[in-house]
Amino acid sequence: MLAQMRKLIGTGENPPGSNNNFITDWYGFDDAWCNMTVSYAAAKSDNLDAIFGKHAWTVGHARRFQSKGRWHYGVGGIRAGDVVFFDWSGTRSIDNIDHVGVVEAVHSSGKITTIEGNTSDKVLRRDRYSSEIVGYGRPAYGNAAPLPPTDGILRRGSKGAAVKTLQGNLNKVMGSKLVVDGDFGPATESAVKAFQKKYGLTADGEYGPASDKMMKSALKGGTKPQKPTPRPPGAGKLVVDGQFGPATCAALQRSLNSHGAKLSVDGSFGPLTKKALQGYLKVTADGVIGPQTVKALQKKVGSGVDGKWGPDTTRYLQKALNAGKF
């Protein structure tokens, strides 16, 4: 699976923003293709059954893993080869999943290296962090390691260090006066329900991603969940290499923000960035980077004008960003 994902690195769209390439041709239609990439790599490595079939819809794929008992919220126990699902808004809810990739490596620092399709309109390696991860599915590979003993949600009957931490936090935030014994019993469940009710969450007594996010904020005196903090590539001179990767995208976002765009600088060429670029170029802001947008971009940066966004267009864009002329 990973060997197939690595072979795809660098695959883009023709033109960028069109959602068209050989992966979408294989799948059967042009649309957001991050999950199509996972499906394509699985099919080409005889792992389609292991990921439970072809999927284009990330939410549906996560639910499929969940229905097969191969889903885990958060990153506890995550391994290379797992299919990892993201929510950029940080709600950590399956229903709000935006994106998906395959884990290539897990680092002791908490960073996770992934390979993802449809990220800045390409298949690229990315470094990701737990704040943007909803959870992961473990494909039924022949040599797959067993999942952690729970699905990442603390509920009645859960035991261990994570329950002790929760009980201590409930005592700090709610004054619950729980015995910190690591045993999620009726008293802990009642305290969780009270916490959830106070902060406007579904009061089901199960401590999952939404409750955990709210707890992190409450421990700092907040009354609303904290939004995840993007970790964009650092500012500085771009390498003029014709590769429209995260560093170039982040530089573009910073430049658009200097013209009033108010984008989150995350290095991801998403719909808001595309529309902001189109607004700056004074073309129809529909979020689809077609020939009209590309020609306007090419005229702006001084490259050849053919309506196709290739490496030459990106090189001229990089030069303009480096010179502060975009």
Blueprint of the fold:
Layout: H1 2-8, H2 22-27, H3 34-44, H4 58-67, E1 71-73, E2 83-86, E3 99-106, E4 112-119, E5 122-128, E6 133-137, H5 161-174, H6 186-198, H7 209-218, H8 246-258, H9 271-281, H10 291-301, H11 311-322
Antiparallel strand pairs: 1-6, 2-3, 2-6, 3-4, 4-5
Helix pairs in contact: 1-3, 5-6
Organism: Streptomyces regalis
Protein name: CHAP domain-containing protein
Region (Disordered): 210-235
Number of separate structural domains: 3
Helical stretch tally: 11
Could you please say which CATH topology of the largest domain applies here?
endopeptidase fold (from Nostoc punctiforme)
Radius of gyration: 22 Å
**Beta strands, count:** 6
* Large-scale geometry: globular
Major sheet strand order? 1-6-2-3-4-5
The helix-strand sequence is HHHHEEEEEEHHHHHHH
Strand content: 5-15%
Rounded average pLDDT: 92
Termini separation comes to: 40 Å
Structural class: alpha+beta
Poorly predicted spans: none
CATH class of the largest domain: Alpha Beta
Task: Based on the coordinates given, report the CATH architecture of the largest domain.
Answer: Alpha-Beta Complex
> How would a textbook summarize the main sheet?
6 strands, antiparallel
**Helix share of residues?**
25-40%
InterPro entries: CHAP_dom, Papain-like_cys_pep_sf, Peptidoglycan-bd-like, PGBD-like_sf, PGBDSf
Region (Disordered): 210-235
Protein name: CHAP domain-containing protein
Domain Peptidase C51: 27-118
Characterise the protein shown here.
There is one protein chain. With 326 residues, the chain is an alpha+beta fold. Helices cover 36% and strands 11% of the residues. It folds into three domains: 2-137, endopeptidase fold (from Nostoc punctiforme); 161-218, PGBD-like superfamily/PGBD (Muramoyl-pentapeptide Carboxypeptidase, domain 1), CATH 1.10.101; 246-322, no CATH class. The chain has a six-stranded antiparallel beta sheet. Strand 4 (112-119) and strand 5 (122-128) form a beta hairpin. The mean pLDDT is 92.
